[in-house]
């Protein structure tokens, strides 16, 4: 397994568990045994593979839904954790989608660009230095999700913490994203020139995994 393909290893394990994933567990185990980068985090990753092997497929699927679909604090959609319902989330999605397309990477019809497994698969698709840069940009959000999963004692925390360990950048804590509805947006930002919608920040021009002011400083 080439080093960049470790991202694909994580991507597959973070997806909704299906029968073919469970059938491939010996291959995931072999990669953990043989790849130097994965082996450096053997204990937590071995624990996660053991979790997949311990429960029935139905139990794994039910736990996945309860973990990620029914708890927005654990959502695997990166921009959910920094933009909330702010319309800038849409701009960030467009920018990330364009990043994918510039490198010939196409998402499925039902996939959103900020879905973490999709991002990780993309990192396996591009040159290693570019993958490391993007991971360094996104690591603050990934670590934020990992912390929430750890607090809930989810086995998936092991996966996300291992992804964080691959980053060349140390994660910083995030400020919780704010605005959840239009009333809160009006109160937070004030009305725009028409007086009907909240005054939003200017659209971003490059891929940004978190908006300005979403990271806590060392003094906070």
From TrEMBL:
UniProt keywords (A-Z) are: Nitrate assimilation
Q: Does the keyword Metal-binding apply?
A: no
* Entry's transmembrane regions: none
A Pfam family for this UniProt protein? Nitrate_red_del
What processes does the entry annotate via GO biological process terms?
A: chaperone-mediated protein complex assembly; nitrate assimilation
> Which is an annotated GO molecular function term of this record?
metallochaperone activity
Does the keyword field hold Ligase? Answer: no
Indicate what this protein is called per its UniProt record. Answer: Nitrate reductase molybdenum cofactor assembly chaperone
